[in-house]
Amino acid sequence: MIKVIGVQFNSAIKIYDFKPGRHKVEINDWVVVDTAQGNEIGRVIYINKEVEPSTEDDIKDVLRVADEKDLGRQARMTTEGEQYFESFAEQSRSLGLELKPVKTELSFDGEKIIFYYTAENRVDFRELIKDLSRATRKQIVMRQIGSRDEAKMIDGYGICGQQICCRRFMTKMESVTMDMAREQFENNINASKVTGACGRLMCCLAFEISKGKKK
Question: What is the pLDDT of residues 113-130, one digit of tens each?
């Protein structure tokens, strides 16, 4: 087995495995890594995860632990990326596209803008990409996400008063079913008690089932 670390980027949706190599990293450190989209900066979510040696060739090494210059650049890119959101929303409305803009994010190298959105049906955004490309003079990446990813990306608080679990500590999405809700609420299921910020069943319903099985 080899040990890897988990790195999460600004979008805060998925966590990707990387080999620390010669670098000593701790949870919450920021690291610069090579991705399919170029060099990116991300936060370390977990360390010392063991994976099969057969997957080693598919896992890249950490390039470096982020320094002040890297962190300063990330802050600038984050701020600039947010400035494209209004344009994204306005252009989508003017073209009559049935999508919900969620977030805009600028890549670490400043060359690409990632536009995150949700939609019930397939969306033809070819004209939107042309308009945004002309306006920004950058490469445009459209990325559709689901409702649970949207909640995790935007962040918020649950009915318990705490930050939503998927943003606070979860490293993977749990599978949640109505059977889990029925088991805990019997015949008194109230939608407001079992529905999370994403509009779907709350992840904590799966946690309670897991606790019950361990007893």
Answer: 999 999 999 999 999 999
Query: What type of residue is 2?
Result: I
**What's phi and psi for 96, nearest 5 deg?**
70, 30
Quick one: how far is CA 175 from the chain centroid?
17
**Count of Cβ atoms closer than 10 Å to residue 203 Cβ:** 21
Residue 157: strand, helix, or coil: strand
- Look at strands 112-118 and 139-144 and give their pairing: parallel
The two three-digit tokens of residue 58, written as one number = 């598919």
pLDDT tens for residues 138-195?
999 999 999 888 888 888 888 888 888 877 777 677 678 888 877 777 666 777 778 8
Q: In 3D, which of 18, 23, 22, 25 has the Cα closest to residue 3?
A: 18
Across the chain, the runs of DSSP E, i.e. the strands, are 2-8, 15-18, 30-35, 38-51, 62-65, 100-106, 112-118, 139-144
Q: The tokens 């445009």 sit on which residue? A: 140
